[in-house]
Amino acid sequence: MYKVTPNPPETDPASPYESPKSKKFHEAAERALDHYLAPPVTAIPYETSSMFLVDPKTDTESLLVNASESLGSASVMLGDFASLLEGTHRKTLLGIAQVVMLGELAVNQALDKVVPAE
């Protein structure tokens, strides 16, 4: 009987580290990949500035109203500025405006759920 599919190619069972030169090459390749693909190890964590602080006594409803108005203003400013641009810069600004608008919608939804203080 004749076999229809060919035999798999024969592979060399030798280790990739058979010679010191191949091991050095592999280590150099790993260093290069780590350099270009690994996140930086010395990244400094982001810390918020304490220059501007919100009064801790401010009630939740007031904070949400202010956030909603700020996000609404940012959305309008981005839309106005995007109308002055063309191409990818315009699309980028419109994308940012959409993210801001989604934040505004979320804040407004949270504001609808706040029980007004009496």
What this model shows, in words?
The chain has 118 residues and is mainly alpha-helical. It has a domain at 60-113. 58% of the residues lie in helices and 0% in strands. The protein has three helices and no strands. It has helices spanning 20-37, 60-82, 87-113. The longest helix has 27 residues, at 87-113. It is elongated and about 90 Å long. The mean pLDDT is 84.
Features:
single chain; 118 residues; mainly alpha
The best one-word shape is elongated
| Record field, number of beta strands | 0
Poorly predicted residue ranges: none
The chain-level structural class is mainly alpha
Tally of helical segments = 3
Cα-atom Rg, whole angstroms? Answer: 29 Å
| Assembly context of the chains | single chain
Question: How large a portion of the residues is in β-strands, by DSSP E?
Answer: under 5%
What proportion of the residues is helical, as a percent range? 55-70%
The overall average pLDDT, rounded, is 84
The profile of the biggest β sheet is: none
Distance between the termini: 92 Å
- Secondary-structure element order, as H and E? HHH
Question: What is this structure's SSE topology?
Answer:
Blueprint: H1 20-37, H2 60-82, H3 87-113
Helix pairs in contact: 2-3
Could you provide a short overview of the structure?
It is built from three helices and no strands. By secondary structure, the chain is mostly helical.
